[in-house]
Design a protein that fits this description.
heterodimer, A: alpha+beta, 6 helices, B: mainly alpha, 5 helices
């Protein structure tokens, strides 16, 4: 009977937490992901940081120096396999935890990404949503 | 922090797995008639191991869920996994009732009507543990 009480309590706690999470979703709807995009498509939405630095990129493109400026949770860019991504909105949605994204903000995260997700279609598809453009030298 | 919670999650899974192996071994011996009655200490210990492991899995799972709730709530696989976990929790109440039969009566003396719930509970348990595991792998 004691194990029933233990698991009953756990069951109720789980219901309460998931219920609270559903009720307090910021947008009122769950996050959904569009189909994977190729590098040649236009990113679906631009963040504020993208708009602010758009003029910079028109001249020199997305350089590592520019990526390095976006090394915080408030503006997190990373270069992965020759492309630059704005991962700011992905930090708190990353299934593996936010710290793994924060660790590559402002850096070339190719090694970290390939080590964890190399060859996997879904992570690559999710990453493609945040594409800013090709990394330039 | 996520790494630590994930370690707790896996440790809880290992604890539950130990309980499942012990419980299945006892149940198999009882059902095959190798023993008339299942060993009480083994059955109850196994149930505790599985229960504590399952509780640890759910609680650490909730802590892991919270930072990525926006992503997970929109994933059908997450809801499928929660269905399996819910079934496991509900089934655990039935297991607690049914395991007393194994320590009191020989399996061959049970009427068919009392054997059916044992098979159903065992089947649900196997299906849901495997289902929860595979959906977790598919989800991440």
């Amino acid at each position: 009977m004691k194990t029933s009480m233990l698991l009953g309590s756990v069951f109720l706690i789980a219901l309460a937490v998931i219920g609270y999470a559903i009720l307090t979703q910021p947008s009122g709807t769950a996050v959904t992901y569009p189909p994977a995009q190729t590098q040649t498509t236009t990113p679906p939405a631009q963040t504020q940081t993208q708009t602010q630095t758009q003029s910079n990129t028109q001249n020199s493109g997305y350089t590592m120096a520019l990526v390095a400026q976006h090394n915080a949770a408030s503006s997190c860019w990373a270069a992965i396999n020759g492309n630059v991504y704005d991962l700011t909105n992905w930090i708190n949605q990353h299934p593996g935890g936010p710290e793994n994204i924060l660790a590559i903000c402002g850096t070339d995260g190719s090694a970290a990404f390939n080590a964890q997700h190399g060859g996997q279609r879904q992570p690559a598809a999710e990453l493609a949503q945040f594409l800013l453009g090709p990394l330039t030298q | 922090m996520t790494g630590f919670l994930f370690d707790i999650h896996i440790a809880s899974l290992a604890l539950a797995a130990v309980g499942i192996v012990v419980a299945d071994h006892s149940a198999l011996n009882w059902m095959l008639g190798r023993v008339d009655r299942a060993h009480r200490a083994a059955v109850f210990s196994a149930h505790w191991f599985v229960s504590i492991g399952l509780a640890g899995l759910v609680l650490s799972g909730l802590a892991l869920f919270w930072p990525m709730r926006q992503y997970l709530l929109g994933e059908p696989l997450f809801w499928l996994k929660m269905f399996f976990v819910g079934c496991l929790l509900i089934n655990s109440f039935f297991v607690e009732m049914l395991m007393h039969r194994a320590v009191k009566y020989p399996f061959r003396e049970l009427p068919f009507s009392q054997k059916v719930p044992l098979f159903i509970s065992g089947g649900v348990s196997t299906l849901c543990w495997l289902g929860a595991g595979f959906t977790a792998l598919a989800l991440f």
